[in-house]
Amino acid sequence: MNGNILLIIIALISLAAGGIITYLFHLMILRNRSTNIIKEAEAEAEVIRKDKILQAKEKFLQLKSEHEKVINDKNQRVQVAENTLRQREGSLSQKTEDIHRKNKEVDAIRDNLAHQLEILERKKEELDKSHKQQVEQLETISQLSADEARNQLIESLKDEAKSEAMSSINEIVDEAKLTANREAKNIVVKTIQRVATETAIENSVTVFNIDNDEIKGRIIGREGRNIRALEAATGIEIIVDDTPEAIILSGFDPVRREIARLALHQLVTDGRIHPARIEEVVNKTQKQIEEEIAEVGKRTVIDLGIHGIHPELIRLVGKMKYRSSYGQNLLQHSREVANLCAVMASELDLNAKLAKRAGLLHDIGKVPDDEPELPHAVLGMKLAEKHKEKAEVCNAIGSHHDEVEMNTLLAPIVQVCDAISGARPGARREIVESYIKRLKELEALALSYPGVSKTYAIQAGRELRVIVGSEKVSDKDAESLSYDIAKKIQDEMTYPGQVKITVIRETRAVSYAK
Question: I need a labelling partner for 461 at 20 to 30 A (CA). Which of 99, 201, 240, 371 fits?
Fold first, then answer.
């Protein structure tokens, strides 16, 4: 029993000794590894230190070279500046010497001129004495004083001078028209030729066609309630008379007239016509027209290539589609003026885009949402200023009818292009009464001059023929009369385009063979 215990103890002791030996062995291995790792780390640190030192040296050399290069560049610039200053000093010295020399020459010339002036003064005194003696001799011979002789000479030369002056005026005017206006005419002709035009349209009445006259009764309704509801909703007078298959929509607001036409068309197509339905259709149609106005405005500015216009101005541009002036559609007129302005501005080397913008917006004051007591040009200018348009555009809008002073070159271009678009044949319809009144005023104005026997306004008032008596008006007086009549018409009358004045003087010799 004791022997077994001893064996067990010996075994335990041997196992413990083997573990200690193993632990010591591993400890030695780890110590060797840590030593190797430390040596390797020290070697890597040394390598890194050397690399950093080399990089620092390279960076230092690079910075040094760059610094030297900058210093060399500065030195070169300083050298160039010094050379330039030396050259300028030399040039200034030369100029100073030239100025001194010229001053000496000027002094010499001044002394010479003073001497010559003294000589001239003496000669002038001698001439005055001689002239006085001659005048006294002439007064003794003619028995007239100098003032009386001068007055007679002035009177004798007055008529001749007047006729020569009139001839000179005509020659100067003709020459100016041939030279100064040649380029302007070419520009205007090219501008007109390059822009398409349209003729006048109706402006106060719309005719609504129907299939048969039975629909008229349905539109009128029981005791006229349908037509009253339609007139109240649209603000348009609806005339149902004996005209076959037609109803007349009358009103001065073309937008309301178009709303009434479309609403009536939808009501007739649908067949349900009563006051509630009328109000519903009119409201729906009004929204459609407003959307169409906005769309027309957007399409117009896109077609013309104009950008950055305020949405409110775009809406007013679209609204011009339903407005006319003297029978001319306002939107078409504004598009035409915009294109004319762009062409004319490009011919004159001005900003064509700005000119086109001003041309499109020049009549924007004719379609406001309210009706203020202002001329349309001034109102359009205020609307453009409100919506942040450029000052050149605002001035061109406000001054195209001379209510505002022109401050830019765009203003006369817009005014001229507006006149071109409005005054061309077929552009506008003139009221018959005002047209006849203008022709009578033309004839009466020319007839008020002495020596005029008959006057005839021809070619739609663009030419005035003036018949004068040969015994009262001479050929030279005819030229003066033509000029005076043209000037008075230009100052006192308003007319489109220009008026040609032709004075006709004829001498008739009549005899009879018996």
Answer: 201
